[in-house]
Design a protein that fits this description.
There is one protein chain. The protein is mostly helical. 39% of the residues are buried. It is 73% helix and 0% strand. The chain is globular, with a radius of gyration of 19 Å.
């Protein structure tokens, strides 16, 4: 590849990244500037309930208490996936990208969620929710639809309340599914949760 070809390729990548960034901001702005008073209360509640993965931990507690042997396995897998994802997202990925949080308009500020001080990329709330779903459903496949729907709602709530861009949520989804799947596969074959 010649120097000219490399320069052209670099230019195309730069333009694509710029367009992706513009799209990201446009979707964020559309959500931020659309009045949704009926949706504001439940999304604010959901976003806050997902702080520190409290929602996932409560579900894990219910599974461990009411779900018998499989429920206990699912709960341990889920909490393990949440912990691993939190470490990867907050200790490794966020410091590398160091993306600033969105600037909230007055309209979106009224949706009432505190702006976190950590980096914006990726969404840790979304990553943890998807990791939990991916890890739990190996033992309890019937919970796949409600857990993935809940994780999706958590991700949307982070954009709706103005604390993340859509791309932060998409990256959180990929990260959570990846780490959750690794935890699920590893614990299926190694350790006290193995299916051997």
């Amino acid at each position: 590849m010649t120097t000219v070809d490399r320069a052209r390729q670099s230019d195309v990548i730069r333009r694509l990244m710029g367009e992706a960034d513009s799209l990201d901001h446009a979707v964020y702005d559309a959500i931020a500037n659309t009045p949704t008073p009926t949706l504001d209360v439940p999304t604010r509640w959901l976003s806050k309930a997902a702080n520190y993965s409290v929602l996932s931990i409560c579900i894990a507690g219910a599974l461990a208490t009411l779900g018998g042997h499989r429920g206990r396995h699912a709960a341990v897998r889920g909490v393990t996936a949440v912990g691993a994802t939190s470490i990867v997202a907050n200790v490794i990925v966020k410091p590398v990208f160091a993306r600033r949080r969105p600037r909230r308009s007055k309209a979106i500020s009224s949706r009432g969620t505190r702006m976190p001080t950590s980096g914006s990329f990726p969404s840790g709330h979304t990553a943890s929710a998807f990791a939990f779903a991916a890890a739990v459903t190996v033992d309890l496949p019937r919970l796949a639809l409600p857990l993935y729907a809940l994780a999706t709602a958590v991700g949307y709530s982070r954009v709706h309340t103005g604390v993340h861009y859509p791309s932060d949520v998409m990256a959180g989804t990929v990260l959570g599914l990846t780490v959750g799947t690794v935890v699920r596969q590893t614990t299926q074959f190694v350790g006290p949760l193995s299916h051997r």
